[in-house]
């Protein structure tokens, strides 16, 4: 992550389905993230929604491929990146557009629910790796057998492609 920019971490939900934009070196994936503050009300003993913040997230290169194949509308996500604002004119008046240029996007597995599960084939491969030379593997009946969650589908490619301008 760059250190000469305003770094942010946003925990929220994907507000729309990630979409591919541009072509060639300017190819990118964009989606919106909505983060809602939760506050505890001691009077009622309940949690209530507070302020909301929504921002467009832009992903480049291999991150774009991973996001387009993994993130779906409504998924809980954690976004790390750099917040940037651009000035433009609309009807002769100055206006501002703010976005996050993502360095990392992950699914928040604590809030994801049951969508991410390993297939039987993935579990067998993991179990065989877990039971390596030391024989300390947990196997499929171990205490963490239900906690193994990974994205379904092919992993993103490592081809970073050209750097955006």
Automatic annotation (TrEMBL):
Protein known as: Single-stranded DNA-binding protein
Assigned keywords, A-Z: DNA-binding
Gene Ontology molecular-function annotations: single-stranded DNA binding
Spans annotated as Disordered: 118-165
InterPro entries linked: NA-bd_OB-fold, Primosome_PriB/ssb
Entry keyword DNA-binding: yes
Extent of Acidic residues compositional bias: 156-165
